[in-house]
Amino acid sequence: MPAVSISGLSKTFQLPHQQYHTLKERVLHPFRARTFDELRAVDDVTVDVAEGEFFGIVGRNGSGKSTLLKCLAGIYRSDAGELRVRGRLSPFIELGVGFNGDLTARDNVMINAIMLGLSRKQARERFDSIIAFAELEAFLDMRLKNYSSGMTVRLAFSVAIQVDAEILLIDEVLAVGDASFQAKCFAEFHRLKSEGRTILFVTHDMGAVERFCDRAMLLEKGRLIAIGEPAAIARRYNEINFGRTIHELTDEAPSDAGRALDRDAQIVDAWFEDTGGARITSVGFHEPAVACIEARFNTALDEPIFGITLRNDVGGTVFATTTVFDEVPTGHFDAGETVVVRLRFETWFTPTTYTLTPSIARAGSGAAAIDVRPDLASLAVHGGHFTTGVVDVPHSFELVRR
Question: What pLDDT, in 10s, does the model give residues 67-106?
């Protein structure tokens, strides 16, 4: 049996057309707020999450991700559908939920640990580990209302992972934490995953989805768009954010001919070459390589912006540039024209596999994207020195004895 089973789940909120702000307004206008708009935050979602699965939930802001988790946690009551959970839940959903701002961190840790299922003895035994992970030893007796949002996140996450729960619900509030704490959280994800915990993980970080998740689902306007491999869901998430319509996303992946119908220009292909013009899939460390984009124009455009992003095997961006950044004029293109854009670079990257994401945008800041093709081509860099860094830039040492 699955650890979490969601069948036909729906949740609707009523948004009044006019809200009261004072008692006087309510007395003078008793009928003013009786008309509502309905917001279908979650719309007929069905999914099963297996025991021990690390399951990603992605979607744009307002897509229903957090509402879905809150229904699972019992914070919201669903309007329709069924929820079945096999095991104890530990929710980490919203910043500050369950904490009392007038109490100290010491008191909040004890209260929340007990509320989440630990006995008083267990809460006392794990107290030092919770505080140590949160790195808040110096702030134990400070009232929580004087904590920063990042400190509150540390405390809440530290409590959540110390509870003996089979299922963890983790929302994107981790983004509030600083980079070093996020790294600690990600290391903790590996531990929890190795212990066979079931984790539902809401995030906007597609690199984290591909790195940790066994499967992922994509929500848009409360509806389930797709469930599948993390890399495929990450690509479709990026397509939504760069202007693909929901109708296209729910159909089978369109052909190049289909892609040409809904945009002013399209990326036809992308690949890597050596300096002689031959296509390559691997290159030696510190050797030159050329990233190539082929684009076709369906309407006339002036000064389109071509962009290239290189990501490593865990989804981290190691290099990104555009023709605007390098002040390269692109000129005018008529409908029906094609162009191949080439970018020469030195592979000062540590040995692994890198992917190429090409993009086209309208003239201006580059925010008005026309087409983007995440991870369309790949290049393996081999040889070189082992380093824990992302790149190995040209460098030299100097020693001066004193």
Answer: 999 999 888 999 999 999 998 888 887 666 678 889 998 8
Residues 18-53: b if buried by 16+ CB within 10 A, e if exposed: eeeeeeeeeeeeeeeeeeeeeeebbbebebebeeeb
CATH number of the CATH domain containing 327 = 2.70.50.60
DSSP assignment letter at 150: H
| pLDDT tens for each residue of 105-151 | 889 899 988 888 888 899 899 999 999 988 888 898 899 889 888 88
Which has the closest alpha carbon to 204: 239, 243, 175, 182? 175
Mark whether 214 and 352 lie in a shared domain: no
Q: Which helix (H) or strand (E) holds 59?
A: strand 54-59
Could you tell me the two tokens for 131?
Answer: 């505080």
Looking at the fold, whether 272 and 234 belong to one and the same domain comes out as no
Q: For 82-126, give the DSSP string.
A: EEEE-S-EEEE-STTTT--TTSBHHHHHHHHHHHTT--HHHHHHH
pLDDT of residue 256: 40
- DSSP assignment letter at 191: H
Q: 171, 61 in Cβ contact below 8 A?
A: no
- CATH number for 214: 3.40.50.300
In angstroms, the CA 121 to CA 124 distance is 5
* Residue range 310-343, pLDDT digits in tens: 988 777 788 888 998 888 999 999 999 999 999 9
Last residue of a domain, one of 252, 278, 296: 252
Are both 270 and 289 inside the same structural domain?
yes
Give residue 341's domain range.
Answer: 261-382
224 and 329 co-located in one domain: no
User: What total number of domains does the chain contain?
Assistant: 2
Domain annotation covers residue 373: yes
Q: Are residues 68 and 171 in the same domain?
A: yes
Q: Any idea what the Cα angle at residue 322 is, between residues 317 and 328, rounded to 5°?
A: 155
Cα–Cα distance for residue pair 154/179, rounded to 1 Å:
12
Summarised one tens digit per residue, pLDDT across range 2-48 is: 999 999 999 998 877 566 667 766 666 665 556 667 888 999 999 99
> Is 8 domain-assigned?
yes
Q: What is the pLDDT of residue 249?
A: 37
